[in-house]
Write a structure and sequence with these properties.
Layout lengths: L2 H16 L12 E13 L5 E7 L4 E11 L5 E10 L2 E10 L10 E11 L5 E7 L3 E10 L5 E4 L8 H13 L1
Parallel strand pairs: 5-7
Antiparallel strand pairs: 1-6, 2-3, 3-6, 4-5, 7-8, 8-9
Length: 174
């Protein structure tokens, strides 16, 4: 499943479950700015990993992560999607190689940093990697009302498209 299709399926299944409507692509106007910077890239494969840090004063989430193995050369892009929950909005951050040309030289890994500035404090932020298929959930944080951060990590797992489409709500709403 391609990243855009995933976000569309995710948005549609979330709206069906919640009965809420938002912008057509579910990208809320609650994100001021987002950026991704590749710190290092090289040949070979590394494990997909990442850490999300939340600054309650500035409303900025920063990410330090490794995008494990890509046949695309980069640069990296960042897509966002949100969905309403009882305790606020949950956000999905999708990091993906934005250049769709294959690298002829080798499989690439990317070590990167990213930041997303929010208008309002999210209740959860989840980081996924895609190429363009979703590889899996890399890490997640939950932000309490007081601004305390609880971090949890799931190991990315490759799944087929039908399993992804069926499990989108479960993967992202929990």
């Amino acid at each position: 499943m391609k990243r855009r299709e995933f976000l569309q399926v995710f948005s549609a299944s979330t709206f069906a479950a919640s009965g809420c409507l938002s912008r057509p692509n579910n990208e809320r106007g609650e994100i001021y700015e987002k950026s991704v910077t590749i710190e290092e890239r090289g040949c070979g494969e590394k494990e997909h990993s990442g850490v999300i840090k939340w600054n309650n004063n500035s409303g900025i989430a920063t990410i330090d992560a490794t995008w494990g193995a890509a046949e695309k050369c980069g640069p990296l892009g960042i897509g966002t999607s949100s969905y309403p929950m009882n305790d606020g909005y949950n956000y999905l951050l999708d990091i993906y190689p934005s250049d769709q040309h294959n690298c002829n030289t080798c499989t690439k890994y990317f070590e990167y940093s990213a930041s997303v500035e929010f208008r309002d404090k999210p209740s959860k932020i989840k980081l996924v990697h895609s190429n363009p298929e979703i590889i899996g959930l890399v890490t997640s944080i939950e932000i309490t009302e007081s601004g305390k951060v609880v971090t949890y990590t799931d190991t990315p797992k490759r799944t087929d498209s039908s399993a992804e489409a069926a499990g989108v709500s479960n993967l992202l709403s929990g």
